[in-house]
Design brief:
With 391 residues, the protein is an alpha+beta fold. The protein contains 13 helices and 14 strands. A hairpin with an 8-residue loop joins strand 13 (363-369) and strand 14 (378-383). Helix 9 (229-246) packs antiparallel against helix 10. The termini are far apart.
Length: 391
């Protein structure tokens, strides 16, 4: 093996990121005397918002990484050299700009402006990929010497590409695992799972402000709606979840048409700050949910939010072969019961005493109320700024 081959293997074993892998690979090819001006790798991913990550290295600007959305990628890929190659069943193609090529693509103009003289394109397939969307990567290289790469330089790149692809694939799988855990179980829970907290019954107590939100009237709407209701629900859930993330909280669970989120306390964020963040998120969620209703018109879906504070148990719960990383405890149950009283009390937001006392904004008492299944009555509060006609 050459030093470059050893280096690629080492990077793959170390788990470096793809950007530094491609940059180091490109710089080492240049050091070997290959007139590389541009190198590109497209790595597909399984992500709700990003379809592919484009990594582009140029000798002039270094490395640039761009995430491309599903919608944008579909159109761009079909019009690219790689879309052409897939449609024609080829995995290798070398376009030289000084010849009379029968095909031309917009990327050729960009490469030409950068001084590139050719476009060496390769599709590297991954057999038995974990998902259909991870079937391989696309790679392209351009030289800035008249005539482009010569045959021995192409052979050198082709010899190294399988190693480069394997190292990039290994890095992508790790990134994919992190992204999928973040998306489906949450940032904090995902990190705990990756760190080895995977046994049933493991976990720890957590003190936090809890955010429990639920749409009123959604079940009735589903009974008379078509499949488009899913897109409508996504908008409402986004209206609830985005403010939580913006205020430093974490969505623990989507429950049908509702959200359970937590704002844990820490040295940097004591009870007052956690409760204030939860309250800001709740107010923002109510405003954004109303904006969703205004966009759609017709029947509105009201949002009810309950804020509570206390100690919960945060950990792995479930059956031996199917676990959930979530929170349980009396405080969670009480928050759910509080939310159920919003419509009866006539206010979209109710708070427990610990939250109300921790927040600096004016609040009004709604009196003592019995929560279903809870023996002792609880005093509930809402914002003083809410009128009696909020519901």
């Amino acid at each position: 093996m050459t030093n470059l081959e050893d280096w690629i293997i080492d990077q793959g074993l170390r788990g470096a990121d793809v950007a530094s892998l491609l940059a180091g690979f490109s710089e080492r090819l240049v050091a070997e005397g290959i007139p590389l001006a541009r190198a590109y790798i497209a790595l597909p991913t399984v992500n709700p918002t990003v379809r592919v990550f484009n990594h582009t290295w140029t000798r002039a600007a270094g490395i640039v990484v761009e995430g491309v959305s599903h919608e944008r990628n579909e159109n761009a890929f079909e019009a690219s050299p790689f879309g052409f190659m897939l449609r024609n069943g080829v995995t290798e193609r070398h376009w030289r700009f000084d010849g009379e090529e029968s095909e031309t693509f917009s990327i050729f103009e960009d490469v030409g402006r950068e001084g590139g003289k050719d476009y060496l394109a390769r599709l590297i397939r991954f057999e038995n990929a974990t998902a259909p969307d991870l079937r391989g990567i696309a790679a392209a290289f351009s030289a800035d010497r008249e005539g482009g790469f010569v045959s021995k330089e192409v052979e050198r790149i082709d010899l190294l590409l399988p190693l480069l692809a394997l190292a990039a694939y290994r890095m992508t799988l790790l990134d994919l695992t992190v992204a999928m855990l973040d998306t489906y179980v949450g940032l904090s829970a995902g990190r705990r799972v990756l760190s080895g907290e995977i046994r049933r019954g493991t976990g720890a107590p957590l003190t936090a402000a809890l955010f429990f939100a639920d749409l009123r009237g959604f079940t009735a709407m589903v009974d008379k709606a078509d499949a488009s209701i899913i897109a409508r629900l996504d908008e409402h859930l986004e209206a609830m979840a985005d403010p939580v993330a913006e205020e430093g909280g974490e969505v623990l669970k989507f429950m049908g048409d509702g959200v359970l989120a937590a704002f844990p306390i820490s040295k940097e964020r004591p009870q007052e700050a956690a409760c204030a963040a939860a309250l800001r998120a709740a107010c923002a969620a109510l405003r954004r949910n109303e904006a969703v209703n205004e966009r759609h018109g017709g029947e509105a879906l009201s949002l009810d939010v309950a804020l509570h504070y206390g100690k919960v148990y945060y950990g792995n719960i479930g059956a031996a072969g199917r676990l959930d990383f979530t929170v349980i405890g009396p405080v969670v149950n009480e928050a759910s019961r509080m939310e159920a009283l919003c419509q009866e009390l006539g206010y979209p937001l109710v708070m427990s005493g610990p939250v109300a006392s921790a927040c600096s904004v004016p609040v009004r008492s709604l009196g003592l109320h019995r929560l279903r299944g809870i023996a002792r009555k609880r005093e509930l509060f809402t914002l003083e700024s809410f009128s009696d006609a909020e519901a």
